[in-house]
Input
Amino acid sequence: MKIKRIFLEHKSGKQPAALDLISRFAPKEILEVAEVREANTFLEQFADPIAEGKQSLFLTGFKGRFFEPCPCTTGYVNCGYRILSPVTGCPLDCSYCILQGYLNALPISVYLNIEDMFAEIEKWEKAHPKARIRLGTGELADSLALEPELGYAKKLLEFFQERKNFVFELKTKADRIEPILELKPSENIVISWSVNPDEAVRNEEKGSAGIEARLQAAKILTEKGWHAGFHFDPILPEYGLESYLCLVDRIFKQIKADKVSWISLGTLRFPPSLKPVIKDRHPQSRILCGEMFPGQDGKLRYLRPIRARFYLDLIHRIRDHSPKTWTYLCMEPTRLWKSCFA
Amino acid sequence: MEYQPAFTKVPLPDLAGEAQYRLSFFRPLEPLLKSIQAIGQTTPILCRQTKNGLELFSGFQRRDALRKLRKKTALALVFDAKEMSEARAFRIAFFENACTRGLNPAEQAKAAQRLKELGVGDLEIARSFFSEAGLGVGVNTIGLLRNLFELDREWKQYLTEKDLSLKHLAWFLRLPREDQATLKFLLKLRPTASQLRQVLEMIEEVQKRDQIQLERILKAIAAPKLEPVLAKLRELRYPQFVKLSSRHRKLLRELKIPAEAKLEPADFFEGPEYRLQISLDRGKDALKIFEQLLQAAAGPDWQKLFELDED
Output
């Protein structure tokens, strides 16, 4: 997706990293702002400020922690994952995306001080020499959607290739694997794709690569020795169980099972406050038509038997292809885990 | 710009301008009638003097009230058409109405349509008119207002009276005319605003989910009264939930749970958990209620309550 404009925070404006990104993204507009609120005000004049924000970058420095435990959700099984956020926001426009109502910044925030991020991780590593953790950059952003212009994916991979006690994941719906192809594969790196059936991708994941392109990208990388992961998350039952089962078949037809590090499963869930945003911004979407009810954490979820049916059938199908592939559920209660993996 | 209007009396039958400028729809005239009857006309109406005669551009409710009171003339400020263009006159009419009493959706729809006819773009309509008047109508809503303008009078009046927000009506307003007409049977069932919103939302969601014609849904929910229409729609919209609920109700009957005890599934059947609530009063035999419950819990069917996935 083309970046139309870059907002430059005054104090970050003259940094070489900022100038470098400006030359690589070559936006039509460059606007200096004192802070992100000013960028928001500018974007709010458009009919769809969120869509406009997805085509805008905000270059800034980040003063907080880049590296955080996944917040998961109250009352559900914790995944132990850690999220790393050198970028927050995403140029893709998925109807179900929580970021539409979650972030305070309309433009995509690109943090220029990623050296501080690496230092933070090194510090953590020193303090926890025996820890082995899984982490990734695909939680508050798409790990590859702004590549290769952004250039962060390559830097991250180079950094983590040397650190074997981290299992680092780039999670994406894009097929922009050029930065990865420049490097040698590592055992502790997993490139993973969020997947959905073709019809769901066309209808709900605007701006993302088609499923065939994602699988092709995964095929190329795994054939070169990289490990791949797949996230059936969010599963959208409106598009039919059969289409999801076919997708499992497609994955294992193209990717060798021993190269698939993990597969996660999670049906759609979102806070009720996102409903009007989805309705307004994605009138073609079918995701509000499911049997969803508030769960313990207040988020809307599909009725439990619907979720259980999808999980059980998908797990069986995955097992048919690859009994050993680590498969897990995302944001589900212990009871459902037990019944799915009994 | 400084205007130099003439303050005068104008003959009521001679006033044109209804189609171009009138913004009042579905508003009661009685309060104004009473006021004019009591103290007379205190605020002049606003007119343009054109070469074809007098055009009223603000004060249609006052004009209607005066007519009803069989008055022949009205106090007016009359502007020369040279200093008061049609667009300027409409702007005044818009702000005079919007800032003093607000505009209902039908009036907003008329305003959006008329501004388009006057060559004003959607963004400017949103910013320089609706936003400036504090109406909170964004540029995305202007299209919906135009759809509302096209709607037939009966629908328009109902939606305005019920004060339904345009965002809730977006799907309905974008439907083809013939589908809107098909849905008109709903008006005869006299739903409240919230019921109408629910019905439209459920129909929309079923249609999108099942990718079927509106007609098929309407055939499935047809009933002479609102309650069965709503029940049938819920069954279509939430089939699994309705199935679980009816299985649960059947089990409660089989278990002979006393009416005083409510055994409700927690969190929409999320797990095999129930909340038990017992209502007791002096006239009721508490022991009997507890005995019935204990009997049910000791019986062979009690376990079925916790087997949610069984049919």
